[in-house]
């Protein structure tokens, strides 16, 4: 009997009705961002693993979807002291030394990963393109991100993130503008909210 088609756990399909609604929301958000002079950017779905690791902490590093290298991804990996038990153990049950062994092998067989959020790719973008950018740089980005989390009700492994940032200025007017943007978006979408902020 043929297996029924399915999608990976923690992902979902969007019907035309859902897409129309989502596109309306995204278009409304973009309209507000652009009215304040923010410019769109896009970054690749995958980044070099070295760019992503160590930016979020150990817990988050474990939630990064790594991409196996093309071809013979075990080429150059020393598997001599890796037991089957070690490979099958949950990562949080391993000792620090065992975790290091797994990470060493992982870095050989996987040099890329799906982005965990939009912040680290944005920081990489700024460093890589700093000579082409006029500062202060106001950018927005609406793209999917991936987390190798155990999906629960209402949480997905693949979802969209919406970021808006100013870089190259420490003026508190930027903070005020971001609050205004948030308020305008909810007003445009006719969602009543109260915005609270603290004194940092």
What does this structure look like?
38% of the residues lie in helices and 15% in strands. Helix 1 packs antiparallel against helix 7. The chain contains 7 helices and 6 strands; from the N terminus they run αββααβααβαββα. It has 200 residues and is α+β, with helices and mostly antiparallel strands. The strands form 2 sheets. It has a 3-stranded mixed sheet, covered by helices on one side. The chain has a 3-stranded antiparallel sheet with strand order 2-4-3.
Task: Describe how the helices and strands are arranged.
Blueprint: H1 16-35, E1 39-40, E2 46-48, H2 49-52, H3 58-61, E3 66-67, H4 84-88, H5 96-109, E4 112-114, H6 119-129, E5 137-146, E6 158-167, H7 172-188
Helix pairs in contact: 1-7
- The fraction of residues in strands falls at 15-25%
Q: What is the structural class? A: alpha+beta
Question: Given the structure, what is the number of helices?
Answer: 7
Topology as H/E string? HEEHHEHHEHEEH
Q: Low-confidence segments, ≥5 residues, pLDDT <50? A: none
User: Rg from C-alpha positions?
Assistant: 21 Å
Biggest sheet strand line-up:
1-5-6
What's the overall geometry?
Answer: globular
Ends distance: 61 Å
Portion of residues within helices: 25-40%
What's the average pLDDT?
87
| Largest β sheet strand count, sense and barrel closure | 3 strands, mixed
User: What's the number of extended β-strand segments?
Assistant: 6
């Amino acid at each position: 009997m043929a297996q029924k088609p399915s999608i990976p756990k923690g992902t979902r399909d969007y019907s035309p009705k859902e897409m129309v609604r989502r596109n309306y929301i995204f278009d409304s958000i973009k309209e507000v961002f652009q009215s304040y002079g923010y410019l769109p950017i896009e970054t690749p779905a995958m980044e070099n693993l070295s760019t992503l690791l160590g930016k979020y902490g150990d817990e988050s590093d474990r939630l990064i979807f790594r991409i196996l290298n093309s071809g013979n991804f075990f080429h150059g990996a020393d598997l001599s002291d890796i037991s089957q038990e070690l490979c099958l153990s949950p990562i949080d049950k391993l000792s620090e030394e065992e975790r290091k062994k797994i990470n060493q092998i992982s870095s050989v067989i996987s040099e890329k990963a799906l982005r965990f959020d939009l912040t680290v790719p944005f920081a990489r973008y700024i460093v890589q393109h700093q000579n082409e950018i006029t500062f202060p740089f106001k950018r927005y980005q609406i793209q999917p991100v991936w987390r190798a989390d155990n999906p629960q009700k209402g949480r997905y492994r693949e979802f969209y993130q919406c970021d808006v940032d100013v870089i190259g200025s420490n003026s508190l007017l930027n903070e005020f503008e971001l609050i205004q943007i948030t308020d305008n978006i909810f007003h445009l979408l006719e969602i009543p909210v109260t915005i609270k902020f603290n004194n940092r």
